[in-house]
Amino acid sequence: MTWQEFIDQELKKTYFQQLITFLKEEDKKHLVLPPKESRMACFKLTPFQEVKVVIIGQDPYHNLGQAHGLSFSVEKGDYPPSLKNIYQELTTDLDLPYPKTGNLIAWAKQGVLLLNSVLTVVAHEPMSHQNQGWEIFTLEALKMLNEKEQPLVFILWGAHAQKFIPYINTNRHYVIKSPHPSPLSAHRGFFGSRPFSKTNQFLISKGIEPINWNLS
């Protein structure tokens, strides 16, 4: 199975047809982010067969020039607060220099699927596209990942991402969970959780090449 085959399969389902209709109307009325060509970017950059790690976000950044189809990643410009906290944990965990970019494409190209559970948002209106069908799509993608024989690492930050745990075979795959890196919750256990070193330790233990997390 490839991501394109998966998307083609979902396209035939009623919920996805309704989602497409909804998005066409939203695109007429509002500025929807990310741009159309970037909405499936995580699948294009991280082919199904190459996925090693899954990081699940909530919905895209809603400020202009940020969202480009990868969870927690910004195309250019300032780092949002959650990304700053992710970088603080990254530099502490792996003793790396502070990243010079907020763009996480380098991770995606190594097999880190940066998946939001909702893939679009109206500019300046967080969670404006929830409960329109994206969550069904994301869950179906996650179920497909769960069937992979190669062990994966699922990094689940916050209660929203952790709702997916019942759909993950934890005997085969490794789940890393902690509070969300948002400034509201990072101090409740995100800092010090060491997700990056834990991920690489697991991958190495399974004979899988680890991720080079260095973005400097």
The largest sheet is: 4 strands, parallel
Total tally of structural domains: 1
State the distance separating the first and last CA atoms: 34 Å
Count of beta strands: 6
Spell out the CATH superfamily.
Uracil-DNA glycosylase-like domain
Q: What would the principal axes of the Cα set say about the shape? A: globular
CATH architectural grouping: 3-Layer(aba) Sandwich
SS strand fraction? 5-15%
Number of DSSP helical runs: 8
Helix content percent band? 25-40%
Write down the secondary-structure element order.
Answer: HHEHEHHEEHEHEH
Radius of gyration from CA coordinates: 17 Å
Q: What top-tier CATH class fits best?
A: Alpha Beta
Which structural class fits the helix and strand makeup?
alpha/beta
What is the spatial order of strands in the main beta sheet? Answer: 3-2-5-6
Poorly predicted ranges (pLDDT <50, ≥5 residues)?
none
CATH topology: Uracil-DNA Glycosylase, subunit E
